[in-house]
Amino acid sequence: MLNYLIYLIKNKLNSNQHRIGVFNGFFIFCAGASRELLEKCPSFEITKYVCVGLTVFFTAILATISSFFAFSLIFDEILLVVIFSLFWGAIIFNLDRYIVSSMRHSEKKWQEVFKVIPRLLIAVLIAVIVSKPLEIQIFKSEIQSYLLLQNAQKVTNVDLKYKSRFSELNYKKTKIDSQYTAMLMLREKYYEDFKCECDGTCGTKKVGRGIECISKKNKYEEFLRELSFEKIRRDSTLVNIVKQESVLKSKLEQETQVIKASISFGLIDQIRALNKIDKLSSMFIIFIFVMIETSPIFTKLLSSRGPYDNLVMEYERAFETNYLKALDNFDLERQKNRKLNEISSRLELKTKESEIQSNIKQEAYDRYEKIRAELERKTLEN
Questions:
Q1: Which backbone phi and psi does 262 adopt, to 5 degrees?
Q2: Are 135 and 271 in contact (CB under 8 A)?
Q3: Domain limits of the chain?
Q4: Phi, psi of 318 (to 5 degrees)
């Protein structure tokens, strides 16, 4: 099979090449495959990579839609939501495209599985991130009901907390009022005893201010003084209780307003609520997205080596061979230049030696001529 593919490449059998249209070409680009190489492959190989590209493309579309729902919870400006959604969709698209395009078939299957594990983990993480905003949109009404119920429960808990305090104050008021009412009834009794004793209708039955009449009168007046002090104490206590009730009412209103103001439907709050509402449905949706996200990986992992893979390997080998040849040629050229430089240096050195020797001979000849001329001059003088 490999020899046949090499034969196809060397002889450029254009008659067997398949023209790929714009539509299929776009999805082949999404799959991270080479359009030029796929044109030399059978049609079923083109279909396989078009399907892989479709999965990558629609995963990016789902990521864009999901991020639109997520960013709409963060930003109020629709333009920012659209921009960030498209940006996030582009990130997911490039990650998926890289994961799919970087997978290569190895000689041993366990090597492929080992290499695919990091890519699989990234794909699962992407699936979880993409699925959450869509889950929030699907369970939107349930999440809002849950959050409202939670805040209502907080308000109820605050009411119960202050209700016990109000009950304590009401108990104190009732106790003080009952004590004061009992003293009023006792005052009436003391007054009746004093009046009937002095009228002679009870007690000693002596009319006039006798000893017993004066004693009961003094007792009655003493009790009136006690009752007066008790009334002052009662009124002061009631005023304090009313003040405490006013303070408690103010605190209750403040805490209730704070709880109502803290009612939030933010992204994090909704994710927390989603995890508590229906974990089974949430896991099911995540599982669907994991299957969609990992389907291109499993497709390439489970499929056997096809014509496109062989062509890629052949072109990689050809590129590596050409690269190594270029390196060898570069080394040979560098060695050649080094040798030429050495030869040039040697020639230059010899040239300089010749020049030096010539200069030395010239200097020696000049000295000889000078000495000879000097000797001739002295001979003529003698």
A1: -85, 0
A2: no
A3: 2-139+278-305, 145-268, 307-382
A4: -60, -40
